[in-house]
């Protein structure tokens, strides 16, 4: 580790390998990856994870996330 940074971990997000800081829970990982948590649904390692569990769900190396963005609108 250099410059005081924490270690990164490798995740698979929507089929793509991405790095993010280690030691974060799911809600924080979503923000780091550029998502607005209130506008997404997350499948975490094959399970749709209820939003109220995100702050307590640790994310570790090799976890698999499918993130679906909710799009509003209509006519």
UniProtKB/TrEMBL annotation:
Q: Which Pfam families match?
A: ThiS
Q: What is the lineage of its organism?
A: Bacteria, Bacillati, Cyanobacteriota, Cyanophyceae, Synechococcales
Protein's recorded name: Sulfur carrier protein ThiS
* Gene responsible for this protein: thiS
Q: Which domain of life is it from?
A: Bacteria
InterPro entries tied to this protein: Beta-grasp_dom_sf, Mopterin_synth/thiamin_S_b, Thi_S, ThiS/MoaD-like
